[in-house]
Amino acid sequence: MSSDELSQYCLDVAQRARAASAVLADISGAQKNGWLRASAAALLDRRDAIIDANETDIAAAPDYGLTDAQIDRLRLTDARIEGIAQGMIEVAMLPDPVGEVIESNMRPNGLNVQKVRVPLGVVFFIYESRPNVTADAAAICVKSGNAVILRGGKEAIHSSQAIVSILQERAADHGIPADAAQLVATTDRAAVGHFLKMADLIDVTIPRGGESLIRRVAEEAAMPVIKHYDGNCHVYIDRMADLDMAELITVNSKCQRLGVCNAAESLVVHDEIAGEALPRVAAALKDHGIEIRGDARTRELVPFAVEATENDYRAEYLGPVISVRVVENLAAAIAHINEYGSHHTDTIVTDDYSAARQFARNVDSSAVLINASTRFNDGGEFGLGAEIGISTDKFHARGPCGLKELTSYKYIVYGSGQVR
């Protein structure tokens, strides 16, 4: 379409989303939950059509230069569709955040001042080639009372269209406007620029993808942005670590799924335990096909390790590579993580309670774990239900963005004729 036609199309989508958000403000929790459950059932009933659409995307993936890890994220199977449906049911089971009284204060003059949770309004969500995210984002936005404009990657356009059409079909049965969840139909990247200018119609933009996309959105958006740039997550093996646990957590953090933002990309090891821990953990990683890139001490202990560069310590590989550094003490480990990490997810393996507490206090990340895999920084694993992303920002929302993170609040004050 022409530039003028694209501009008008984007405006129409945003205006319909704004109108839908006004209707959602009066939708009951029961209606939203009914839609979620009905949509989950419909996704299962029509899984063959979804997989057929997904196969079209998979067939085109090599033309887009997708890596094996990216194609894995794109692929839908019966099991993954069942997971998508289960995710919607789990969102339905969560308490409705809209209308929750966060605080209540009775003033001496009799005014009852309440702080009440309300939707943000319209969410513009830009995300990578993961069609399961399409359903997750629609579920979490509508449950929290928000209309959402979904701008997925071109690589998953057919899969996402199949999913959104099913969700929209089920909406009318529960009094929910179909425009509450809209998929941007064009893959023209210029559409993003049009939406980012619409601060009067869109309340927040959430980009989820590569660093270049997120930086572009942060620079161009006229409305607030909830973002995370990348996931350079660390496992730190402390001098008091249990070696069985250290191996298990490191391998799970790195290898359970390579192409996700909460996979470990860096391993930091206390020098006092490195002689025992590193050869063992490195061998286990090698058995999973992981390349080790380390400092001089690492290469001394692990003959098959290659030299790490400064860029390696800052890298989000999303693939079978991990950087390793040996440090002299806990303080050096914390300093390394805060310097090179992305403030996403970092874990310590230790039996020393004092070290664990110091690590938790001083590592500046959205989630800090103690004796657990980095892979747990996830909305579902934290009991939030589906998430729309993991924010490394510090304002409004940090960590997994679930239902409550997609709300704001306003004050509602009950009086009986008071004047000032």
How many strands?
16
Low-pLDDT residue spans = none
CATH fold category name of the largest domain: Aldehyde Dehydrogenase, Chain A, domain 1
- Lateral strand order in the biggest sheet: 10-9-11-8-7-12-13
The whole-angstrom Rg is 23 Å
Mean pLDDT, all residues: 94
The largest β sheet comes out as:
7 strands, parallel
CATH classification class of the largest domain: Alpha Beta
Query: Helicity range of the residues?
Result: 40-55%
Q: Can you count the helices? A: 15
- Oligomer state equals single chain
| CATH architectural arrangement of the largest domain | 3-Layer(aba) Sandwich
Q: Supply the CATH superfamily name of the largest domain.
A: Aldehyde Dehydrogenase, Chain A, domain 1
- Shape category: globular
Distance N to C terminus:
58 Å
Class derived from helix and strand content? alpha/beta
Can you describe what's shown?
The chain has helices at 3-24, 29-45, 47-60, 68-74, 78-93, 131-143, 157-171, 190-196, 211-220, 243-255, 271-287, 296-301, 310-314, 330-340, 353-362, and strands spanning 101-106, 112-119, 122-127, 147-151, 181-183, 204-208, 233-237, 264-270, 291-294, 306-307, 321-327, 345-349, 367-370, 390-391, 399-400, 407-414. The mean pLDDT is 94. The strands form four sheets. Strands 10-9-11-8-7-12-13 form a seven-stranded parallel β-sheet, sandwiched between helices. Helix content is 44%, strand content 19%. It has two domains: 3-226 and 402-414, Aldehyde Dehydrogenase, Chain A, domain 1; 233-376, Aldehyde Dehydrogenase, Chain A, domain 2 (3-Layer(aba) Sandwich), CATH 3.40.309. It is built from 15 helices and 16 strands. It is an alpha/beta fold and 420 residues long.
